[in-house]
Amino acid sequence: MSLLSCLRIAASCILCLCAAAAQAGTAPSGGTAGAPVILVLGDSLSAAYGIALDKGWVALLQARLSAAGYPHRVVNASVSGETTAGGLARLPALLDRHKPQWVLVELGGNDGLRGLPLTQLRDNLRRIVALSQTAGARPVLFEMRIPSNYGPDYAEGFRASFATVARETATPLVPFFLAAIATDPTAFQEDGIHPTAGAQAAMLDAVWATLQPLLER
């Protein structure tokens, strides 16, 4: 399976839509009340589509934090099919309810697949970052990618948008967290789109490389 084929993973988000909201919800994955909160604002890649919720990378993040002695409580507010606009609309209530210390923003794939103008994508990301910061949370952006058959100029501009916003807002950026599994067909479910339960640890590793040093500051 080629890298470009595997990048089509984001296409599934359009099919999933908000039906998975009940599964992903906004319930904490673990931890204790009063602990600093890590809020994950994502789409189907973070909502554990097609696998048990406790096997997804977000649940594995909670387990790793606990095992490493971190007190943080992870709240998974990911919804399959989510866009940056949808995440932006939901964010104020999530910030008010959970008062997170960190907001992990894994959004944008659906925007690219729908051909959203890149200026709008970047503006939505900036507003998500600003809202998080105003609420006292520290945002972390995730780099997303789309296949080049959407047009090489658009695909490259899309990829670069995340680094641009991260640089402008001094926000940490997680490099494309499917890179390690993108060329391995066994890392995906039968649809060839969604990562398997066995691939979730590699996804977490990609996130952890950026997140863990931040937690030490």
TrEMBL record:
Which residues are the signal sequence here?
Answer: 1-24
Give the Pfam families listed for this entry.
Answer: Lipase_GDSL_2
- Location of the SGNH hydrolase-type esterase domain: 40-199
Return one GO MF term. phosphatidylcholine lysophospholipase activity
**What keywords are annotated for this sequence in UniProt?**
Signal
Q: Which domain of life is it from?
A: Bacteria
Signal as a keyword of this entry, yes or no, is yes
* TM helices/strands, residue ranges: none
Instruction: Identify this protein by name.
Output: Acyl-CoA thioesterase-1
Q: Which organism is it from?
A: Fontimonas thermophila
